Backbone:
């Protein structure tokens, strides 16, 4: 079964691991690059790397980012040299960024070097950036615009958010294989990622929403919101800033025109009717994943929602 | 006393440490950049870094390069990613190359970022690259040309050497401060570095030999050759390839027109007459440095040679 997933980083990683653990799932991941950044002259793709490391079994699951069994000697030496180290890069993680940065400087597209890194780390699934063109998620605050990593990592998501926008998105093209992966998928999964800063930038790339609308596959989402807040990260604050209710209905509303079903937590059972009004079928289950069995179970529920459609 | 030293890497580092340990020595180092190389997209300056680390007390004195208490997790991750790792960069060392590479890409000259790195690591002496322009030492072998690091590190100096040349030298200008440091020095020291691949590239930069000829300071060298071989490294093979005798007289011959004195090892005492014929005064002492006391003693002998001139 061809499954194509739209994914952010940490939140997506667990569900993606669950999907790859299912028999007969052939997975393609379309990853967010809106929070890419340059650190110490290195091109860093936090979401693509979290997905790649997760599927390679290398992700530090405690932190939710970077590689496990990691050291930070280079970062500490950077600090001693007077460089900013609020964005922490581990010694092993740095190798990924070095390989990518050198490839991009040679003129390789991001999609190609992303595939190379995934293959060399032993990832069987395909991982595609949403675009080879630069798209940058900008968080507008009363004190001016912040790049997403500045807002999230440097400022610890404490700034008041006025708006979220995707600089460069209007001119970006889907990376090679992205539209094909959507229109050829049996099931399209929207991972439980931040709708504003993980899924939002992907949908902002012209052609991707069109592909979702016309795709013959079943489109199922997993809600990143449980109750009135995000399971992790700043999704709530950012949804509010855009006037989107911080509820599973708010999530459904964002994806409604082309979303067939949304997997929601048992705690949000009563929202099923509201989702039905939006034309979205609610699939109710336990959505908090704290171990590999949960990851597989939630992935199975998402896939079964499509099978039973 | 203003002392200006022409320096390679490992061999020079010990004498330079000795010089900085002497009272009233104000040291400027002119470092070789002919063996600079690009590794993993990083601009690496092996000789400048060895000098900087040595004077910062950070050099791994066992290896003779890189930083002490170093780890190599990034390098191992690079290997897992399929990248060449014959040139080994440590995790802390990588920070130096990252800072330098980012500065050069911003358009900063090498001399400025070299000064920045040295200052941030607490080095009191001035460290100048011989030039901000690229000069690359090329070793010609029967199988074609090799960049110096390819010849020395990758091929372990096993290739037969036909010639040594300094690509780019003819168009290079001395870095800001280099000529001034030579003409204003009380003593100019040629460190016991490889005459072909450490001192040779410095002398190949137009204007530097002229400055040495016209400098009013006393020019004293310390021989890197003891008996019929180099104390360390491939100096012997490379001198032979250029038809230079692998003896202290061979060293004196290379620098003779403007060299006042050459510090030679007690084992080469009988070469003193030959040096005198070349117009170079021989200063005989123990030249093998195995501890800090030896480093200081040899540095003192070099400086005293100038004082007694």
Residues:
């Amino acid at each position: 079964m061809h499954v194509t997933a739209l994914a952010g980083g940490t939140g997506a990683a667990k569900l993606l691991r669950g999907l790859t653990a299912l028999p007969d799932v052939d997975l393609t991941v379309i990853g967010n690059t809106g929070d890419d950044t340059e650190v110490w002259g290195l091109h860093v793709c936090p979401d693509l790397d979290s997905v790649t490391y997760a599927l390679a079994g290398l992700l530090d699951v405690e932190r939710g980012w970077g590689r496990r069994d990691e050291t930070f000697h280079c970062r500490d030496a950077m600090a001693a040299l007077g460089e900013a180290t609020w964005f922490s890069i581990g010694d092993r993680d740095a190798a990924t960024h070095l390989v990518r940065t050198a490839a991009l400087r040679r003129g390789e597209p991001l999609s190609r070097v992303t595939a190379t890194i995934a293959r060399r780390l032993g990832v069987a699934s395909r991982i595609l950036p949403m675009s080879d063109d630069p798209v940058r998620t900008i968080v507008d605050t009363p004190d001016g615009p912040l790049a997403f990593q500045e807002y999230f990592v440097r400022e610890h998501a404490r700034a008041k958010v006025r708006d979220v926008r995707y600089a460069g998105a209007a001119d970006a093209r889907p990376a090679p294989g992205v539209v094909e992966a959507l229109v050829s998928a049996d099931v399209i999964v929207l991972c439980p990622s931040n709708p504003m800063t993980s899924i939002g930038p992907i949908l902002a790339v012209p052609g991707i929403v069109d592909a979702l609308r016309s795709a013959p596959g079943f489109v199922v989402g997993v809600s990143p919101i449980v109750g009135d807040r995000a399971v992790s990260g700043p999704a709530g604050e950012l949804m509010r800033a855009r006037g989107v209710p911080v509820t599973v209905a708010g999530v459904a509303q964002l994806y409604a025109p082309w979303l067939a079903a949304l997997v929601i937590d048992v705690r949000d059972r009563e929202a099923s009717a509201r989702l039905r009004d939006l034309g979205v079928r609610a699939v109710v289950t336990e959505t908090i994943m704290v171990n590999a069995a949960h990851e597989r179970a939630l992935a199975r529920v998402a896939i079964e929602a499509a099978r039973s459609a």
About this structure: The radius of gyration of chain A is 18 Å. The mean pLDDT of chain A is 96. The interface with chain B takes residues 40-42, 67, 70-71, 73-78, 80-83, 91-96, 98-99, 101-102, 105, 117, 120-121 of chain A (CB under 8 Å).
